[in-house]
């Protein structure tokens, strides 16, 4: 679930060999890593080495991926991040001036994803005003830079220009990809989808919940490092769901009820299939247990999150539910979110803090919810 497409651009500096460790680590973390090398970089480390650790052909002047008619565009199209490590003074100068004279600089210019640069060079070259102006230009255009370290340099001198520890780069990459594990060590129970209440031996009372929000929450919670239990409510009636949640509740830190839980069930479930001969058929419904309210009464420090799907007066109704159910946080959605891949949302917490999210893919809404939970839990 962590896997993202990352382009690692390698330019020709003595620190090139250290980028092998970076690529290897990113690959082992589950990312899809595409290495792009300049000709000079290929003189320091053979492309075969990068090919072996990334398990993908390296893209260089001599080799472009697949049969793509415009390789530098195809290369960066669905990339989540472009990392340039090490970035030499020469390539930095080219990029700062928008030059595109090889596969690396061309694809860098074409990439629309976030970009991270790891300059590494001789201390005098790094301190040179021209290099500093170029780096500032790159910062101003939205690139993120990791400052080189100070210490012993390959040219035999001391100074600032050393390639940093790969773990420093990985931490920055995680941050840029939103993979910082803010919920590591937390157990989170998530319900999604809609419950199904039996009416007779074959028919059920169901709803249109697709379960997409629940699954997006599970993915975002895992990305944040949490230990996740996901319950698909469509496999249960309300009582069954209550029993399933109860199996896990005592051991979790957070319960997120994204499931659309039936508010009513049939007062009597016919043990046989109801015949279709009658002109009118009345089924008496009776209220189900409010699961969030029930678990709020059982809690021993668990953080409780509810959802509210409203046609009108979104905020007011959500606020009421937050209080009535004894929740820490409620996510209010408009009915239009049902079944869609996108959703707007208002996050309301028990302290009265309100955050309104614009229309976003559900995974992004889920990530924002995890950020809120993490911030609240860590005080
Ligand atoms: N919920 C629950 N137990 C129920 C019904 C709902 O725990 N029997 C939870 C849902 O999982 C959701 C929140 O409560 O997190 C929704 O609250 P609910 O009062 O059912 O509101 P809606 O169904 O959204 O709206 P309404 O009350 O207007 O039907």
TrEMBL record:
PANTHER family: HOMO-OLIGOMERIC FLAVIN CONTAINING CYS DECARBOXYLASE FAMILY (PTHR14359), PHOSPHOPANTOTHENOYLCYSTEINE DECARBOXYLASE (PTHR14359:SF6). This is Coenzyme A biosynthesis bifunctional protein CoaBC. Its cofactor is Mg(2+); FMN. It comes from the Bacteria. Residues 1-187 are annotated as: Phosphopantothenoylcysteine decarboxylase. Pathway: Cofactor biosynthesis; coenzyme A biosynthesis; CoA from (R)-pantothenate: step 3/5; Cofactor biosynthesis; coenzyme A biosynthesis; CoA from (R)-pantothenate: step 2/5. Binds 1 FMN per subunit. The keyword Zinc does not apply. Residues 183-375 form the DNA/pantothenate metabolism flavoprotein C-terminal domain. In the C-terminal section; belongs to the PPC synthetase family. In the N-terminal section; belongs to the HFCD (homo-oligomeric flavin containing Cys decarboxylase) superfamily. The active site is at residue 155. GO terms for cellular component: phosphopantothenoylcysteine decarboxylase complex. CTP binds at residues 263, 273, 307, 321, 325. The gene is coaBC. Keywords: Decarboxylase, Flavoprotein, FMN, Ligase, Lyase, Magnesium, Metal-binding, Multifunctional enzyme. Residues 4-175 form the Flavoprotein domain. Residues 188-379 are annotated as: Phosphopantothenate--cysteine ligase. It comes from Candidatus Termititenax persephonae. Pfam families: DFP, Flavoprotein.
């Amino acid at each position: 679930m962590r896997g993202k497409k990352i382009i690692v651009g390698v330019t020709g500096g003595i620190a090139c060999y250290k980028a092998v460790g970076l690529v290897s680590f990113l690959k082992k973390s589950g990312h899809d890593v595409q290495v792009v090398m300049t000709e000079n970089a290929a003189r320091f480390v053979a492309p075969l080495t990068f090919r072996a650790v990334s398990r993908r052909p390296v893209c260089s002047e001599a080799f472009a991926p697949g049969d793509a008619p415009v390789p530098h565009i195809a290369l960066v199209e669905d990339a989540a991040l472009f990392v340039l490590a090490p970035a030499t003074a020469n390539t930095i100068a080219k990029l700062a001036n928008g030059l595109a004279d090889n596969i690396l600089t061309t694809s860098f210019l074409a990439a629309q994803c976030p970009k991270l640069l790891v300059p590494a060079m001789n201390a005098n070259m790094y301190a040179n005003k021209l290099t500093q102006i170029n780096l500032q230009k790159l910062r101003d255009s939205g690139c993120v830079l990791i400052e080189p370290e100070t210490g012993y340099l390959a040219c035999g001198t001391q100074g600032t220009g050393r390639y940093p520890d790969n773990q420093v780069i990985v931490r920055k990459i995680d941050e840029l990809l939103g993979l910082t594990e803010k919920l590591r060590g937390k157990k989170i129970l998530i319900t999604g989808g809609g419950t199904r209440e039996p009416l007779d031996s074959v028919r059920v009372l169901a709803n249109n919940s697709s379960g997409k929000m629940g699954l997006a929450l599970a993915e975002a919670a895992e990305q944040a490092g949490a230990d996740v239990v996901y319950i698909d409510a469509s496999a249960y009636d309300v009582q069954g769901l209550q029993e399933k949640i109860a199996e896990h509740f005592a051991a979790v830190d957070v319960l997120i009820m994204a499931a659309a839980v039936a508010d009513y069930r049939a007062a009597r479930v016919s043990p046989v299939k109801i015949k279709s001969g009658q002109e009118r058929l009345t089924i008496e419904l009776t209220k189900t247990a409010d699961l969030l309210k029930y678990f709020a009464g059982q809690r021993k420090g668990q953080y409780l999150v509810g959802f509210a799907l409203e046609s009108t007066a979104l905020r007011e109704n959500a606020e009421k539910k937050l209080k009535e159910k004894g929740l820490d946080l409620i996510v209010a959605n408009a009915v239009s979110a049902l079944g869609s891949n996108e959703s707007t949302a208002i996050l309301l917490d028990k302290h009265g803090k309100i955050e309104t999210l614009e229309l976003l893919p559900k995974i992004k809404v889920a990530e924002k919810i995890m950020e809120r939970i993490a911030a609240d839990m860590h005080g």
